[in-house]
UniProtKB/TrEMBL annotation:
Residues with the 4-aspartylphosphate modification: D233
Hydrolase keyword on record: no
Domain of life of the native organism: Bacteria
Example GO BP: phosphorelay signal transduction system
Keyword field contains Transcription: no
Domain CheW-like residues, every copy: 15-154
Keywords: Phosphoprotein
Range of residues in the leader sequence: none
Residue ranges occupied by any Response regulatory domain in the UniProt entry: 175-300
Pfam family, one: CheW
Protein name listed in UniProt: Chemotaxis protein CheV
Amino acid sequence: MSRESGILLESGTNELEIVEFEVQNNKYGINVLKVKEIIQPIPVTFVPHAHEHIEGIIQLRGEVLPVIDMARALGLPSQQKADSDKYIVTEFNQQKAVFHVQNVSRIHRISWEAIEKPSDVYQGSASQVIGVVKMDDQMILLLDFEKIMVDINPESGIHTGQIKRLGERERSAKRLVVAEDSPLLRNLLKETLAEAGYESVEFFENGKLAFEYLESVSRQIASGEGPQLVITDIEMPQMDGHHFTKRIKEDPALKGLPVVIFSSLITEDLRHKGERLGADAQVSKPEIAKLVMHIDQLVL
């Protein structure tokens, strides 16, 4: 991660940097904070009976990493290898993976406000697109890399079984607010939080909508009748989780509201960014049981 990228997160500016890459002449983007490095393709070892999106494995600096064919993951036929091909080495959700793409062109700095939510007309429930960036006469699609990984390995996602292992629990009437842009994760969080006893949960698809709601109920919050805790992702169109956290902690009527960041970007290198912005706890996806334990500590 570059020093400049760290400054963006640290200051909560509601900006991000994306790496633009191509797959079969279509342009896509990935948050630079998920990218460890970009390398030239190296020989891949075939793994029998692996998932159809997995090309094989490589050894990189002593680590064995899966190589994912990005074309297949996007529902496109595989292409012939070309000189422009690149490997994007990533780390998120406490796992590392390599994505094989056709080309990596440049890095863009943009505001989350400039990212449009995909329309329900073309998105569909199985879509991997979480945002659309219009750049001059072209569009860059931001992809849900967490969903791509869960499609390959469902066990890497969120499951109610993680909550059941916590044992018998008293149900709680505490009210929570969740900001999460992924429809898949909103449904999973709704299911798992209900299993944990938290059934009074308001869901919003980005920090901007969630913050507007909190402002509208600030009097109830002050009197103890409103939401008692906020859970937020980091990567969200319109307003990201770091900026959302900053806005809450700078608001006199809301600053006492506990904020838990629940994101695939929680690593030891980045954890201090959320701390500086006032987050009360930070949990890496998909550790839902740890998330629930933090909620218990902060609201019960």
